[in-house]
Design a protein that fits this description.
heterodimer; A: mainly alpha; MetI-like fold; 9 helices; 78% helix; globular; B: alpha/beta; 6-stranded mixed sheet; 4-stranded antiparallel sheet; 36% helix
């Protein structure tokens, strides 16, 4: 029996898919924002002189990177309430993805930090900047610029990982697609359109990041 | 001529000792500079010249001796008979009293020439943006780069970058400027523009402590020359004394070998 493609059923619910895409983007943006802060703190800790801080950063990265994201999301969503912390599913997912992003960004920022020439740090100290001022005004901008390409990869990865939110019934793109699939049995059409939307969104993010890379002064 | 009490040294290094692990780099260095002195330190690599400068700018810790800058003992204090390194805020304040120019320029790559000079003025001296810019413009003009204010380091030649670094150090109005082999990383044809800049700053009355391999320059610009060998000051004198007759065998050999 031949399978004839009928996209009509998918187009009828296209607004749901777009709505899901928007939710996915929002989740990713929120998680990346929190994750960037986590990653920065953890990266600075990982290169600090304090053995305790290095230990905390190392343990964090070790734990989070060795748990599959889906498991982490389920763990946070179902186990956290048992400890008395009540989060709705959005907060819970953003928290999980932020933790996850933070661990990967630790490595990205750590590599960036190690790429900052020691000489410019000394030059900052030599004009009388404190350690904190040197980190903020010299190390951070140079490190961020050097990290930009791998930062882009991580951001795109985080956006794609927002599809995991479907597992806890957040109505993002994958969840909506699955619903359409179940309602219409248009398997190929549904997942083709969903994939197309993911590709279009990732492509746009990548293009925006490339523009950002160009706008920053080259070193 | 008698020296009066008012001629207090601007920089007074007493018995400075520094080691990296078991290796002794500085084995008790005494050196003092009065205001407007221009002192060049010469000596073969590994003699401790650069380390000495870095100790004065507190970029290195040192294990013994005192460095007194304009009457203030810097880097360490004594608490209950124990020698303790000062806190970061104190070290930063003391570092701002000296300017340092590095062999490899070390300009901030994300900031323009003006931005490089302005950073310390803004963050350390807490000046407003306009005020800091006026000072940056003045100093960049002074080193002949008035037309390059908005250029990034990557758009400048080595000689230009080093002149920005000199402007960056001087704009902070330091009591003492440390110059660490500032022409060693430059192409030969760019050396002169940097040396000329330093000469003119010396002529303006800045106090300079210079580590250099440029013997002719040292002779021309210095009020005093210090010859270091194996972590100690082996000889010290006016350029005429150091480069004239009657110097030691060792210094003689060094000067011969450094004449490429």
């Amino acid at each position: 029996m031949n399978y004839t493609l009928h996209f009509g059923a998918v187009w009828a619910s296209f607004d749901h898919l777009l709505g899901g895409l928007a939710i996915g983007l929002a989740l990713a943006v929120a998680a990346v924002a929190v994750g960037t802060v986590l990653g920065l703190l953890s990266a600075f800790a990982s290169v600090s002189k304090s053995r305790l801080l290095r230990g905390i950063s190392g343990t964090y990265v070790l734990l989070i990177r060795n748990i599959p994201l889906l498991v982490l999301v389920l763990l946070v969503y179902f186990a956290l309430p048992a400890t008395g912390i009540r989060l709705d599913k959005y907060e819970s997912f953003i928290g999980s993805l932020a933790l996850y992003a933070g661990a990967y960004l630790t490595e990205v920022f750590r590599a960036g930090l190690l790429s900052v020439p020691k000489g410019i740090v000394e030059a900052g100290r030599a004009i009388g900047l404190t350690r904190m001022q040197t980190n903020l005004s010299v190390v951070m901008p140079v490190m961020l610029r050097n990290s930009l390409p791998s930062l882009g990869n991580t951001f795109i990865g985080m956006f794609k990982d927002s599809s995991i939110a479907a597992a806890i019934a957040i109505p993002e793109l994958t969840f909506e697609a699955r619903k359409i699939n179940v309602d219409t049995f248009r398997v190929v059409e549904t997942w083709t359109v969903a994939s197309g939307l993911y590709i279009a969104a990732c492509f746009t993010i990548a293009a925006l990041l490339r523009r950002l890379e160009r706008r920053f002064p080259k070193f | 001529m008698t020296t009066t009490d008012t001629a207090r040294p601007l920089l007074d290094i007493r018995g400075l000792r520094k080691n990296f692990g078991a290796v002794e780099i500085l084995k008790g260095v005494d050196l003092s500079l009065r205001p407007k002195d221009v002192v060049s330190i010469i000596g073969s690599s590994g003699s401790g010249k650069t380390t000495l400068l870095r100790c004065v700018n507190l970029l290195e810790e040192f294990q013994g001796g005192d460095i007194i800058l304009d009457g203030e003992t810097i880097g360490y204090k004594t608490v209950g008979g124990k020698r303790v390194r000062l806190r970061d805020a104190e070290l930063s304040r003391q570092r701002a009293m000296t300017g340092m120019v590095f062999q490899s320029f070390n300009l901030f790559p994300h900031l323009t020439a003006a931005g490089n000079v302005m950073l310390g003025l803004r963050k350390v001296k807490k000046l407003g943006k306009e005020e800091a810019f006026v000072i940056a413009e003045k100093w960049l003009n002074r080193v002949g780069l008035g037309a390059r204010l908005e250029h990034y380091p990557s758009q400048l030649s080595g000689g230009q970058q080093q002149r920005v670094a000199i402007a960056r150090a001087l704009a902070m109005n330091p009591k003492l400027v440390l110059l660490d082999e500032v022409t060693s990383a430059l192409d030969p044809e760019l050396v002169q523009e940097v040396l000329t800049t330093i000469k003119s700053i010396a002529d303006d009355g800045a106090t300079l402590l210079i580590v250099t391999h440029e013997m002719r320059f040292a002779r021309e610009v210095s009020s005093r020359i210090v010859f270091m060998e194996q972590g100690r000051i082996a000889e010290e004198g006016t350029p005429a004394e150091i480069f004239g007759e009657g110097r030691s065998q060792r210094l003689n050999e060094f000067l011969k070998s450094s004449r490429h």
